Amino acid sequence: MKTMSNSEVRALLMELTGAHWVAVGFHKEKPRGMKVSAPEAFCSAAAGAITVSSLLKVSDIPCGGLKYAFNFPGAKTPVLGSFIPGRLHPLINPQAAVGGKPRLAFSPQYLSFNAPDSRADLYLSFMLLESASEMAQVWSSVSGKKLNCKFNGVMSFCSEGAAEAMNSRTPTLALGCSKAIRTAGLQGQVCVCLPEKDALKLAAAWARKSAAGAVA
Fold it and tell me: How far is CA 12 from the centre of its chain?
């Protein structure tokens, strides 16, 4: 099968899951032909990048959890109180550092969403749990194995899941922090991150199925 563009992969994944997907790229240098977008949280930018391309500069992103997860130079370990709702603070030490959270092994300077004529490092989608469950079932049918998925949350939404997916090279499901959910309007949704190889595997399987159906 010919190499697919990230727009083709996103279209096939949307047909398969019923949810929009975003192609995410990590860059050490500014990609040619792309203008830097206005600063905003990663979750908001990803949620808004359904049909458009955008580029964020990591140093400008107003999210301590993201800067920690993406190994931004000088980023400090966030404290629990930054992410846990105030009503739960009596159960925790709000000033305690978040421990054991995924962090990239490199330090990207820019993050692209749906970059034209470019491969993606991973594919990200916000979807209802029902859609995520169906995707897991499809994965089992395609691979012959159950979906070995990393489960994340607490510190941030998509940045934590993205860092885990990049590090482990396995699909990741993240619940997100309450602030991110409110900021991006993602109530009732989970964040699914697929490394490129897994996204291509699912997209190719759906393309073959669609082609077989058309011939029949």
Answer: 17
CA-CA distances (angstroms) from residue 158 to 51, 70, 161, 172? 18, 11, 5, 10
Domain contains 1: no
Phi-psi region of 188 (alpha: psi -120 to 50; beta: other; left: phi over 0): left
Torsion of CA 71, 96, 63, 133, to 10 degrees: 90
Edge-to-edge strand list for the sheet holding 110-113: 54-57, 110-113, 22-27, 122-128, 189-195, 172-174, 150-152
Q: Which domain holds residue 26?
A: 6-215
Domain tally for the chain? Answer: 1
Given the structure tokens 């995520």, which residue do they identify?
A: 132
86 in a domain, yes or no? Answer: yes
> Does a structural domain hold residue 96?
yes
Query: How are beta strands 172-174 and 150-152 bridged, if at all?
Result: parallel
* Cα gap 62→79, rounded to integer Å: 15
pTM more than 0.90: no
Please check whether residue 170 lies inside any domain of the structure. Answer: yes
- Note the pLDDT tens digit of each residue in 95-128: 877 766 788 999 999 999 999 878 899 999 988 8
- Tokens linked to 120: 């993606």
